[in-house]
Records
---
Amino acid sequence: MSALLEVRGATKSFGGLQALDDCSFVVEEGSIAGLIGPNGSGKTTMFNVITGYERADAGSVLLQGNAITNQAPGRICSLGIGRTFQLTRVFSRLTLMENLQVGRAGVPRARRQELYSEARCLELLDFVGLAAMARVSAGTLSYGQRKLVELAMVLAQDPRVVLLDEPAGGINPLLITQIGERIRELNRRGVTFLVVEHNMEFVMGLCDVVWVMERGTVIAHGEPEQVRSDPRVLDAYLGGSLDEDEDENENEDEQEEAAR
Amino acid sequence: MTVVLARRAVIVLALACAIGFPFVFSNPATTSIAFFTVLYVAAASAWNLFSGYSGYMALGNAVFYGSGAYFIANVTNHLNLSGGMGIFAWVPVAGLFAGIVAIPVGWLALRTRRHTFVVITIAIFFIFQLLAYNLQSVTNGSAGMQLPLPPWLAATYNDYFYFAALIAAVIAIVVSWAVRRSHFGLQLLAIRDDEDRARGLGVRTGRVKLTAFVLNGVLTGVCGAIYAYYLGSVYPPFAFEAIFDLTVALMAFLGGLGTVSGPVIGALLLEPLQQYLTQQVTAAGLSLILFGALFLIVIGFLPHGIVPSVEQLVRRLKAARSR
């Protein structure tokens, strides 16, 4: 396997806050890589830097060895890097079909007609199980459904690597399973993934390799099993075990307090 | 299928009514109202083509209206043209001129978004109005400019302008419709919903917005040129009229922002009302106060406009029936 996407020493600060601090990692072609870390560790900022939504202060982003650092989001997209957002960003007053067809304007007409044909978009909507709602405006969908639409929107661009920002966050378990299956299916077809996610069960079950971030830099990486038992990682998560859901911990604490 | 046929029948019928109107109601007082109504159908459609589709609320469209008006006044004066049908040939050129004016205006204003954009367009509008008062060599200042008088009889005078405005309106509607169905239109609507996301998907937002803005400028300039010829004179407060800025927006709001038929319906309802009020309520400014009150009522009670509200109602009735 060779590196498809590589980040070298990315650094970014917002005023006094060091969001990324000399952060480096590699996503191998054809893999599903996970990017985990506590809240505020810089995962979304990393995504924004890769996809051109934020400018890096220093460091570089490489796609197959070519520097693509700080290019405009549209340009990054046309290079084959697609992304979804933590808080979904669909075009709420457009239909699902139209959402998929917005696409890039820079592509040649023939290619555009192929990419954004009704048939292909319908196929993609069918892939995420929403073909029946092709003519419904996206604003009427549930949060989980919007996540699926976002995935389909990204796939409509025919990307080589897809960055998913919390694909399983805030949606019901049945949809989480469905999203996981879809990601694996696409991966078999050759799409590379980089996934930010808090749902440990989901990440550990899905990813080939996991990178762990804390305070803007990578502190560990390896196969899910390795990472799971890495003391540095456990420490980063405030000594908590990764197997237990954070929310559950909070609930238990509350119950204990209530019992007292 | 039946829906498509019904829609086509409505369009043909509406066009037939529009063409036959001045022959049936030939009273000049009526055809004058009809002329303004059709002119505002064109102007409101033009405004909607940019602001309705992109979500950028431009309140300075009179810049292009006035530019078109002053352009045709200058051309007819400098070329010593005499009144007649020939003047209408300059109307599209006036539109192109207004489109050229729209390029730097749009380039500047579209660097901002939302409320700032609204304020900037208003500011640019006032700059143009001031220029019209002060650029004596081009506008003749507050003394105004005269256009050649057409040799038409008073009884049918309005009809020529009515049909000129009707052609402009049909073109504006067809362009709006074509844009709405095109990939370009889809990109505009995407900008309205989430501009940064659209940019991230490769939409060249700056270019798309400016193109729509210039299209709006061309169509509005055409309206301004027809208006100037109709009046026979151009004065700064009539060419660069603040009420025009608001009227076209109100019409699109009332009918339904971002729909093709919305601004048409809005103009058909509001312009006759405004003209009627101006004719009936002669007390200075009272018609404007009534008009302003109407704006508040529309924004307050019908924020989505007539067309989307009716569509929603139909959908709800259908859903209730299928249950």
---
Amino acid sequence: MLTGERLSYERALGFDEAVDSQCRLRPHYAVLFEELARLPPAEIASRERLRDAIFRRLGITFAVYGDAGGLERTWPMDLVPRIIPAAEWAVVERGLAQRVRALNLFLDDIYTGEAAALRDGIVPRRLVVSSDGFVRQAVGIRVPHGARCLVAGIDLVRDADGTYRVLEDNLRTPSGISYVLENRAALARVMPALSARHRIRPVHHYASSLLASLQSIAPRARGSSPRVVVLTPGIFNSAYFEHAFLARQLGAELVEGRDLVVENHTVYARTTQGLERVDVIYRRVDDGFIDPAVFRPDSVLGVPGLMGALRAGNVGLANSLGCGVADDKAIYPFVPALIRFYLGEAAILPNVDTYLLWEPEQREAALARLHELVVKPVAASGGYGIVIGPQATDEQLEICRKEILCDPRAWIAQELVQLSSHPTFIDGRLEPRHIDLRPFVLAGERIEVVPGGLTRVALPRGSFIVNSSQGGGSKDTWVLAEPLVH
Amino acid sequence: MLARHAEDLFWTGRYLERAEDTARLLDVTYHGLLEGGASDAPMAWQEVLDALQLSHLFRARHRHVTAEAVEAFLVLDESHSSSIAAAIGRARENGRNVREHLSTELWEALNSTYLELRADGRAQELAAHPHEFYRRVRSRCQLVAGAAAETMPRLDAWRFLLLGRLVERAEMTCRLLRVRAPRAIGDEHQDEIHYWLVLLNAVSALESYARRFGAEITPAHVLELLVLSPEFPRSVLFCLRAAEAQLGALEGGVAAPSVRRALSRMRAELEYQDVSVLLERGAEDALERTRRGIALIAERIESCFFATGPSPERHVYESI
């Protein structure tokens, strides 16, 4: 237990980001704790009110589906930032770039190459063709630089040893980057003394990096400043705030499907001056809704004829269609092998140990210890549908077992990772809460990793569910520019 | 810019102006009655409903025309789209649709206005200090307008926002004048003067009026100031001129001849209008014609710049 005049902190089981196993403060948290200790409890409460006022005034909110409490909820950011030392981040950064490079090579190979990884048996072909994320219609559509997944969000956790592991890949329409930028701006305003005493790697250049990446996939004939738009499902989508935020920062129009029209395999926006050509679409609409003429005919979110424009090479789309095949959780166990296959390198960031439930032996082994494992549906994201063995009732486990036996391809089982914990203000006192990290990786002509990412916090004591759609909180995440000098 | 965004901005402007104008109207009506005795209170409140063409909607919800009922109906009742709360809510909803076009300061001003109006205790505040409440709505709307004026680049987003405000304001001024026009013209009765005073106050015109025409209130001078003045920022002519300038500056605005023609014709008509002729021929008809002309211009702006598909439900006041 760490005790001080104003600050005490009792660590939880597992790896703690701020203190070691003897509860001694890790060096890169020393200055932070020194500053926090200056704040009397009343001051902490008043800073929290200021934080809430800032987020509310700016309208920084997110929606929780099925929540009767209202359409919008103020963004929950804890006042204690997470700190990642430079040397530690350097490894993570290389690991992320490596992973996204390999995943893009895999995707490009499936859709426009010879599918070498399938031919050579690195990944079973039937897993790919049976994947919900595999889009047959995207076969043959080329993407400049092979940047099929242009924006990736790779979820990382730290196990009991503090090793960073990849929990899952999000290669379709990962969200959260706007909160990374807003957390940084808000924390600097609410806790200026904290920010001032650290050298933090900046994140506010994200929009210009994203714009450069997006413009790099424009049709080649379209000159030096192609027109980029952000395609949103609309104001009722849970990430609408982010879509508007990015459009504003990119200087791009925020469009809905009804604002776009395709004529002669070319995409146009309906403007006050008639139709104007669109060169790149940064879409935050799912694959199945993007072109009602090809996919779901009932979709009002998409643009009829978009597939034709993509095929003709008249418009760039990010992320491209069919990225979901590579973040299918059934493909996930094969990613380290894909890295070796496409790059000839060992994976820098390990996976979490995973059972392939369609393999009879592994299925038997997993079913025998279901109460210790985490079971996830392969195609879902956002924490929906996950069963955590140790916290599930016998009845829930029985239902889970039946569902696995009914459709083994639809599930994976993983060892429960004791997520690392981090000091977090709960009612004015520091308490350990479990966290993960979603860093963002941009692909284009080159790969760029945003320093840090979105740290999500499971707010109930002992909980491992960090998803903001499930009521999780967040932290500003600092990557230090260089080790602190005392 | 995107047609849908232009439409949302135009309506953000309209709803904001509507909230402000309604607050002004309620404020002066309420305090006019306090200062002048409450003998004709039901009539004064009925006139407010008539001016806004909401009598029918009101009757469906309330049996008697009382200050409390009219205020409840026009301020906090969100079951219809003409109350101040509903107008601010819609202005903010439209603004949220085009968030990326608004400067952060403008959005913050709009969003805080909305949040403040939804805060607990507003009903009590309205009951205890109506003037304070209305003043706050008015100054909040002006804060939004100020944030827009000081932070928005003079591009189409700004122009559509402003066009919405100007169109709504011009129409509202016609509506306010029209209600009293039939009885007031040529009648120097004390009550009528009282009404004109209230009206001038409602549009912040009393000081301008006094400076220009002195303390004597005549219908001719009121019309001169509120309809034909090229200087007073809430007069119909002023709004039309400003709208014409914004329209001409729009990208592609020159390619919208039907809107420009209608607007220019009406502006020219007012510029060469003699107020005594207007009174002779019947102010009520003239004002109604002008109001319809403005409504038509708004419709043409919609069809010329926004028409790209089914548009959302918008509330346009109906003709009596």
